[in-house]
Amino acid sequence: MQRAIVLGAGMVGSVMAVDLARDPGFEVTVADNREDALARVANAAASLRESPAGASSGLRAPSDIRTVRADLSSPEAIRALVAPYDLVLGALSSRLGFAALRAVIEAGKDYCDIAFMAEDALDLSPLAQKHGVTAIVDCGVAPGMSNLLAAYGASQLDDCRTISIYVGGLPRERRWPYQYKAAFAPSDVVEEYCRPTRLVENGKLVVREALSEPELLDFNGVGTLEAFNTDGLRSLVHTLKVPNMREKTMRYPGHIEIMRIFRDLGLFREDEVEVGGSPGKPGVKIRPRDLTAKLMFPKWTYEPGEEDLTVMRVICEGTRKGKETRLTWDLLDAYDTTTRSTSMARTTAFPCTIVARLLAGGTIKQPGVHAPEAIAQPAIVRRIMQELQARGVRYSEREETL
Amino acid sequence: MQRAIVLGAGMVGSVMAVDLARDPGFEVTVADNREDALARVANAAASLRESPAGASSGLRAPSDIRTVRADLSSPEAIRALVAPYDLVLGALSSRLGFAALRAVIEAGKDYCDIAFMAEDALDLSPLAQKHGVTAIVDCGVAPGMSNLLAAYGASQLDDCRTISIYVGGLPRERRWPYQYKAAFAPSDVVEEYCRPTRLVENGKLVVREALSEPELLDFNGVGTLEAFNTDGLRSLVHTLKVPNMREKTMRYPGHIEIMRIFRDLGLFREDEVEVGGSPGKPGVKIRPRDLTAKLMFPKWTYEPGEEDLTVMRVICEGTRKGKETRLTWDLLDAYDTTTRSTSMARTTAFPCTIVARLLAGGTIKQPGVHAPEAIAQPAIVRRIMQELQARGVRYSEREETL
User: Fold this and answer.
1) Hey, are the CB atoms on A291 and B273 less than 8 Å from each other?
2) CA–CA distances in Å: residue A250 to residues A116, A153, B96, B231
3) Half-sphere exposure of B249 (CA within 13 A, CB side)
4) If DSSP codes are grouped into helix, strand and coil, which group holds residue B191?
5) By the 8 A CB rule, do B61 and B37 touch?
6) Closest residue on chain B to A264 (Cα)
7) Which residues from chain B sit within 8 angstroms of residue A273, using beta carbons?
8) Residue A279's pLDDT band (boundaries 50, 70, 90)?
């Protein structure tokens, strides 16, 4: 029996905890400073155990989940908290991710997380090696499965020349005007729409404006989507030696035009603007992005039970045995009406809990901090895909000779 | 020789002054509290006199225009100012229009203006009758020519059942994203996009949301435009007994969708919103419309020399001699590169200066305050159209039997 602790009882953390608790090999604790969030996780596990759906699709019903209240913004608190556990999973906001990673490494515990932190987690690799800790970060869907499939696809070609990653979280119902809701913090979405994007072209790192190079693509089961550059390559820029790599976010067509207009107007500006003044009377200073946040975020928030979708496409192109070859993986996942968990939470949490099992079982053991592309060996990728499929998250694979 | 004074030396007032000064029957003064605006008018007249273009198209070059500095926000100042003149023309902002009208009436002077004031000018009609003053208000393009043509068209049918007025000011060049610039105060445009619109249906006054009932229509020389309800019927709601009347504003297609999104987001809200606060720390309160104004208005401002267009269509439908008949007037006017005056200023100023001549000559003499539909007698309409045509503002007329 392994003792695992999940840091964070939010949407993703709760799905992680329930998934691990379905495994008789784990005793699961979840930590958060929000009492209500902890209660929700414990109740979710209990009610799944009592409902016939709890053990649906060949998965066992979850065992009890322990909860512990803790201040996860305090590295000291995390070090003390994780000491009695064999394994730690991180489901923290991007803001807390880096400090938590360091604290877990210092506590000498193997770790996997989905934090999407702004800092470069790989900077802590020497520290992890010193402590004999294996940490796999960015272990969600994108980053996460996108890295894994990009690296695996590249390894399956003799000469991979282009990697294209498309990913998006969408509401199932398209409502005017945005046709969009944010499954995670809307402020992070706005940040994504503003941050310059890094891509690799002809072996060189180039920077393009966010929201640039929109293109339409068709996605079975969803229809036509619109993809645009975002800064999502992250570690792949450095870890993969592929001369052309880009990452794009997908939305329903039209969304991005509105965002371009908002940005052009200055609604995403972070500098202060003085408004409402008159001659002789100063106005007040505000950051336009703060007002936009205030007005827009309620409109971007999923209603309870509102269904979301996750779509992803990873394309690797190059030559294999002298033939021009394209490998494509498609993911289309939807809100789970049985467990009432969002597709975003499912597709993000499961890669992390599956990797956690591989860490616990010793299948992955390479001290240091790694992005998922570091574990893209065929046996591991196969195992992850099988486990995802058992949880209803299906990546289809297609191979074309061009 | 008649002595005329124009109140206001802005874009429209300056065109009024120059137009009157082309007439040997007038000695023209223009009043404003902005020294630079006054200098511009005087210089414009002087330079037109010296250039061959000044007397183009059969119009005489303007004589000298006198200028006088005055505080036009003070009714007392206006009463004193206009005392020595035979006739007064108003080219004031909507904010100052009503008080100025009252002051001119109290001074006992005939008046015509283009103020587009929020108050009901006709409330001052008893006062004007008492002073023996004839005042024609809203004497621009729309309101103005729109009222005149609607009333004239209705009088040309035995039974007019529907009046539709379409009007718009547009930049000649369409630029992403708004395809729009504001030839007058952009805050008035936003107000127009928010104020509920009154229209007449089956003899009843009904109120619709602003920006509602968008429709596409083709306009020779411009292409396809998009029209939507605005609150522009004004006095016609009461003065014309036509069972169906509506007024719509025209923009290039797409503009109004952006405005609908902005309104939906709350960018036009006038109530205070608190932003930028955090737990325990209050934010600042702002009216979103103030920020929108600050950010948007620079983008909506015409560059010097940037060309504008004015489009208007007035349709009167009903029966004549037992036949279903449609009368249509179309206006398409453009920036005047010779005089460097905007189409908005031309199409607005000339109806007022033409009516001023009719007042000065005694052709119009009916003490009271009137909207232009009150002077829609065939002889007057014919005269106004001829004079407009002499100034290059051409309304085409079309009659169809349906």
Assistant:
1) yes
2) 18, 21, 52, 40
3) 22
4) helix
5) no
6) B177
7) 291, 294-295
8) confident
Q: How far is A141 from chain B, CA to nearest CA, in Å?
A: 31
Q: Does B287 touch chain A (CB under 8 A)?
A: yes
Of the candidates A258, A292, A294, the beta carbon closest to that of B261 is on A258
Q: Does A265 touch chain B (CB under 8 A)?
A: yes
* CA pseudo-torsion sign A164, A168, A172, A177: negative
CA distance B38 to chain A (A): 22
- CA–CA distance, B250 with B342 (Å, rounded to integer): 18
**Residue A54 in this model has a pLDDT that exceeds 80:** no
* Residues found in chain A: 402
A80: contact with B, CB 8 A cutoff: no
For A281-303, what is each residue's pLDDT tens digit?
A: 888 999 999 999 899 989 999 99
Residues A163 and A328 sit within 8 Å (Cβ to Cβ)? no
Distance from CA of B210 to the nearest CA of A (A): 17
Decide if B273 and A294 are in contact by the 8 Å CB cutoff: yes
User: What is the C-alpha to C-alpha distance for residues A150 and A169, in angstroms, rounded to an integer?
Assistant: 19
Mutation target vs B (from A187, A295, A297, A299; most B CBs, 10 A cutoff): A295
Residue of B nearest to A176 (CA): B261
Looking at the complex, does the CB of residue A206 fall below 8 Å from at least one CB of chain B?
Answer: no
* Residue B283 near chain A (CB below 8 Å): yes
CB contact residues (below 8 A), chain B span 288-317, against chain A: 288, 290-296, 299
* CA geometry: angle B13, B18, B24, nearest 5 deg: 130
Phi-psi region of B213 (alpha: psi -120 to 50; beta: other; left: phi over 0): left
Q: Which residues contact A181 (CB under 8 A, 6 or more apart)?
A: A171, A300, A301, A302, A306, A308
Whole-angstrom Cα distance, residue B251 to residue B170? 7
Closest Cα of chain B to A27: distance in Å? 36
How far apart (Å, rounded) are the C-alpha atoms in residues A285 and A295?
17
CA-closest candidate to residue B333, choices B382, B373, B391: B391
ipTM beyond cut 0.85:
yes
Q: For position B338, what pLDDT does the model report?
A: 86
A267 Cβ under 8 Å from any chain B Cβ: yes
Q: Do B286 and A286 touch (CB under 8 A)?
A: yes
Determine the Cα–Cα distance for residues B245 and A317; give it in Å rounded to an integer.
63
Contact (CB<8Å) B276/A290: yes
Where in B36-108 does DSSP place strands (E)?
65-69, 87-90
Between strands B368-370 and A110-113, the pairing is unpaired
**CA nearest to A226, candidates A188, A153, A170, A161:** A170
Question: What does each of the 402 residues of chain B score in pLDDT, given as a tens digit?
Answer: 999 999 999 999 999 999 999 999 999 999 999 999 999 999 988 888 887 666 555 778 899 999 999 999 999 999 999 999 999 999 998 889 999 999 999 999 999 999 888 899 999 999 999 999 999 999 999 999 999 999 999 999 999 999 999 999 999 999 999 999 998 777 888 888 999 999 999 999 999 999 999 999 999 999 999 999 999 999 999 999 999 999 999 999 999 999 999 999 999 999 999 988 877 888 899 999 999 989 998 999 999 999 999 999 999 999 999 999 999 999 999 999 988 899 999 999 999 999 999 999 999 999 999 999 999 999 999 999 999 999 999 999 999 999
Task: Nearest chain A residue to B278 by CA: give it.
Answer: A290
Chain A CA closest to residue B291: A275
Task: Tell me the pairing of strands A159-171 and B215-219.
Answer: unpaired
B187 close to A (CB below 8 A): no
User: Do residues A20 and A48 touch, judged by C-beta distance below 8 A?
Assistant: no
